[in-house]
Amino acid sequence: MAPVVAAAAGEGGPDQLTLSFQGEVFVFDSVSPEKVQAVLLLLGGYEVPTGVPTPGMTPTNHRYLGDYPGRLSQPQRAASLNRFREKRKERCFDKKIRYTVRKEVALRMQRKKGQFTSSKSDELGSSSADWNGNSGQEEQETT
Questions:
Q1: Taking a C-beta distance cutoff of 8 angstroms, is the pair 33, 49 a contact?
Q2: Does 19 have pLDDT greater than 90?
Q3: Is the pLDDT of residue 43 over 60?
Q4: How far, in Å, CA of 95 to CA of 33, rounded?
Q5: Where in the cell is it found (predicted)?
Q6: Would 138 be classed as within a structural domain?
Q7: Judging by beta carbons within 10 Å of its beta carbon (0-12, 13-18, 19+), is residue 8 exposed, middle or buried?
Q8: SS (HEC) of the chain
Q9: Which residues does residue 6 pair with via DSSP β-bridges, in sequence order?
Q10: Can you give the residue range of the structural domain that contains 1?
Q11: What value does the mean pLDDT take over residues 22-30?
Q12: Residue 7 domain-assigned?
């Protein structure tokens, strides 16, 4: 998404630059029209005519840079990432324990062609007849 740049002449005065990028609005005070022109040229080669006044931009949800802290410094970011990784290890460890218990139960269960089967139906089938329909007794041949 391309950033939207406008010099707001309404609320903050003529020396205010408003940038809208990825749904966030940034407002900079004390920005000259020459700097706005330079930013527009960098972003897409768009020039604002010098004689035409720029319309005021009044979005409903302004987010000023003073309201939110800037990016974390490298040591702060590293410490934050370490805390996140430690918490993630604990979360994954709990899931691994549950999985091994379930795996043990699954390994003990009866299977037929990869599908879990009831042990009761298997016992009934093996005691009544074999695969060929014989009841366990050999037929005698007569010569």
A1: no
A2: no
A3: yes
A4: 57
A5: Nucleus
A6: no
A7: buried
A8: CCCEEEEECCCCCCCEEEEEECCEEEEECCCCHHHHHHHHHHHHCCCCCCCCCCCCCCCCCCCCCCCCCCCCCHHHHHHHHHHHHHHHHHHHHHHHHHHHHHHHHHHHCCEECCEECCHHHHHHHHHHCCCCCCCCCCCCCCC
A9: 18
A10: 1-68
A11: 82
A12: yes
**Structure-block tokens of residue 115:** 């599908």
Q: pLDDT grade, residue 9 (50/70/90)?
A: very low
Residue of 42, 47, 48, 12 whose CA lies nearest to 30: 12
Question: Global pTM?
Answer: 0.23
Q: Which two tokens stand for residue 49?
A: 């005519």
Best CA proximity match to 19, nearest among 8, 32, 11: 8
Question: Domain tally for the chain?
Answer: 2
Rounded Cα distance, 100 and 93, in Å: 11
Q: Which amino acid is at 28?
A: F
**Euclidean distance between CA atoms 143 and 126, whole angstroms:** 32
| Residue 43 included in any domain | yes
